[in-house]
Amino acid sequence: MTSYSDDSHVEIQIEDAPDKNKNKKILEIVCSPNLNHVAALHEDNHISLWSIVNQENFLANVKTIHIDNIRTTEKIFAISDNKQLSISLDRINPYNFIIFDFESDKEVSLTFPDWQKEIDFLYFIENGNIIMVNTKYYRAYVFSSKGKDNITWVCKSMIELQYFKKIYITSKGNLMIFIDTIHEIAMWDIEDLTVKTRILLEWNHILKHIEISDDEELLSVCTENKKLKETNLYVFSTETGINLSSHTIKGAIDRIHLIASQKGERLLFINFSEKRYNLVDPYYLNNPIDASKLFEHKQIQEACIIQSDTIIYTIDGKVLIEKLVRDNWVEYLRKELKDTNSITTPSKMTIDIITKIIKDSSYYTYKDEYEGKFLKWSLELSNESVKLIAIPLNSSIKKQLEILPSFKLDGKNFILHCEILENDDFITITRIGIIIWTYSKNSKNSDIKIHYYWNDWNNHLEDFVLEQKKFEDYLYGFKDWTPGRILPVSSYETIYNNLDVKFGEKELFKEFLKNSVEEEFYLTCYGKHLMKTLIELKNDKWIRHLGQSCINKCIQDNTHLISKISLLSIVFENFDKLSENHPQFIASTLSKIGFVVPSTIVNPKSTSSHLSSYGRYYQLYNTSFLDILTSSLWNHWINFQKRFQFNFQKFQISNLCDRDNNTTILAIPIPNFVSYPKKYNFWKELLLPSPNPFTYTNNVEVINEEFYRYLNGEALLKFKWNTFGRKYYLAIWAIYTVFLLSFIIAASCYNNISQTNLFILLKITICFGIWHLIFELRQFIFEPLNYMSSSWNILDLVAIISTTATSIYWIKNGSAPTWAITFSSLFLEIRFIIFLRPNRYFGVYLALIMKTVDKVISFLIIFGLFALALAHSLHLMLGSESEKSQNLNTDMYTRFGSAIVVSYYMMLTGDKNPLSSFILNENENIMIMLLMIIISFFMLIYLMNLFIGILSYLIGISDSHLAYLALKGEIIEEIELFYMLPHQRRKENWFPFVIFYECQIIKLREHINCIQQSWTGYKKPFISKALKEVLILPEEQPSLEQIEKTIKYLSDKQIKDIGELKKSIEDMKKTN
Description:
The chain has 1072 residues and is α+β, with helices and mostly antiparallel strands. It is built from 28 helices and 44 strands. The strands form eleven sheets. Strands 1-2-7-5-4-3 form a six-stranded antiparallel β-sheet, with no helix packed on it. A five-stranded antiparallel β-sheet has the order 12-13-14-15-42, with no helix packed on it. Helix 16 runs antiparallel to helix 18 and helix 20 packs antiparallel against helix 24 (926-957). The N and C termini lie far apart (97 Å).
């Protein structure tokens, strides 16, 4: 026996005869990321290394070491593909773990940039790097090997994680972080610090297990509802974050695993105490199959490892490895395990068959029958009919379907090629496209139906002629497709254009489109593609059907399901087009999700304000030197924070105990509503920023008002304003104030300051004027029409351009016209007043003013044109008389410009003095009197009163609160798009996936009561069962329509029951 020790007094003994420990009990085993090695921890602190390379069944013990001071609880235990072992130790210096290299028999030394001594999680990943996490400071470290000897390691990156409840590290190096405050799992890329997906869980569930597939495209989650004593299984797509399927079972689950991703994927869930092993299709999660046969003759314990379709377990101090997924996996499922459930994920063999069929130009004749693992398919062909028949093996059931379209008469030549796939689906190459048929066994009525259809003809199939071309030329979806978890999306545009085509008595394309809209598999996997296709086809009916299907999946038992909220991304990822072309549909959708209550728990002693943000949102970032310095003070800060929080809460309870400040949590269930596209070009984004759904709400007035009728809109604005809005706005206001003051001081005090100081002020004005002008120009480039349609944008331009131009002229010529200085100052000061609009005290009235001005701008133009006509009439009639007279009152009509000013003055004030001189001089001139009558009646009485009436009407129908919120939304939109840098718009803590907020019960109840009594929006909001429970609302009385439906249902049921009773009596008479 040899030994090795370092300066930290850790003694590592290397066993010369590793087999001497073969009968010692193994407490725990771990395997390397690529399944090359296994490390086993024995009960006497021995650690053995087992090699998997070229080994079968019993593994060979390569080497065994002994370490005395191994930590017994919450320990790190990991092995790399390069035979490097890591395990926790009961020590502090230099850190609380050791990395031992089995190849060189040396300890690996690490240097932490922040002098870290405690690591809670350590994992070797596939690329050879080490990821470590400290939970005290919420910090992650990535180490990589510097030399070929794998002894020298350097810290590649150090990352601030912020708060989390649980953390998982995948073999590909992704971090999966669970935050219990908002019940969210986020998957982060450790390399570029971007979030790959976000997953929401039900708030009344406790997270138990997380399992990710080998390719990290599927995520399985197991949660527990202790109140109902239920265990819930969920499967999510890591690409979209959408919940693909869910299932609830009674009893506990100890382990979950996703297996056989390349052969016929299944989710395995295990209960060791009950020795219960079940398999289920992860895309459906129904009808679990008993999989006990898989584990026959295996002494499986909780210490076993299931990875890459293999199982590693221990017996009597030995480590064994076996294939869990056999080569003939599908056949084993069908025949041995009697698993006839669907196999959604295509196996490699299935993908090879489909790819070969598509690329092969020489199709061969079909057979009469095609027998699979549990189904037998056959075809019956004639000139006028093609019948597809499916017969389950060992069953008398026979299903057949006419598959020849009505416009194709040559049935014998309709099928070009067909073949049965490994999952028992049936693929046919026909004259109208490639169709995969499936036998729907799990539905109420087992039947044959279309599973996929490909032919990107995108027109009526009556005009489609295959001729000599291959189908590959018509399958655009396959050109960029790489074989993966699911097959490419079906050709929905071609299907839509042929909905009326009949196959016998059935409209199979219409049935398939309906299934794609309603069935969860198609909806979750292809819903986004389908929605985009329907939007392009501008079919409001199917768009509404698809959107309603998404909402129906999110609402069960009259309660919103948080775990299903991601489905709404199908709708809101197309928010811009839907809000513009289908605003009623968006308004209807908003009414269904206006009040989403994730939990019925009420906080009776909340100190939060109404509509304040709830939970923690975070953005991973590289650790700075400042973070390292502040972390040394972290312990003191935490202790101080705890003491302060305790004393503060004690003070609040003692002083606010008489106040009713009960709060509940609500969600804004619109996924990625405030998020921006992750991929972007910096310079393009700087000039022409990519909008998000939130910025589109301000473009459509109907949607804008509807969105802010709900508390969600106000809570969202409050979150944005408190998070970043007010900081940016105050900075913008401060810069504008400098711009304003520099010009105002120059204009007011130019006689009292030196020429040098005056020019300094003017140059400052010019610099800030150009700065403001750049941002105005960017806004104009972004949306020219919307920008020019706002009178306040014109005011901004006039104020900036006039001030800047006047300053330039002043510097160039040494002076400037008084009128230019005056009007520039006027516009600047008006714009400064408008900066008060985010403050509710001023903003309510400024919003009404700004909204009203934009609506009456066309009337003001007409008003001005009438004034111009009046001025021209006065100039023609009185101009000649004014030239003869030297009176100042008459001289003003000699020039057309002054006549315009006089006309506007008379129209606004009603003063007739400018015309009185002509009446006196001309001895009651009849024509002038007539002109005065026209002015008095039409311009002063009619138009001015009409203008006042229009203003009163617009103000009367406007909701000042909604107008204020919409105005504040425009301010925040402007800040996001034009004042933030592109990378700032991608900060996850500023633009979260879904936002939660705290709402005071009293104010929420008042809001709901107002809705129930009088609702002015598009559609009355949906009040869920959870919300009624939180607010203790009485049950609504059924409407007259609902009563009539109930009466009709009961009467029809009675008639039916009477008919059945009569039939039974007649049968009894016949029998007797």
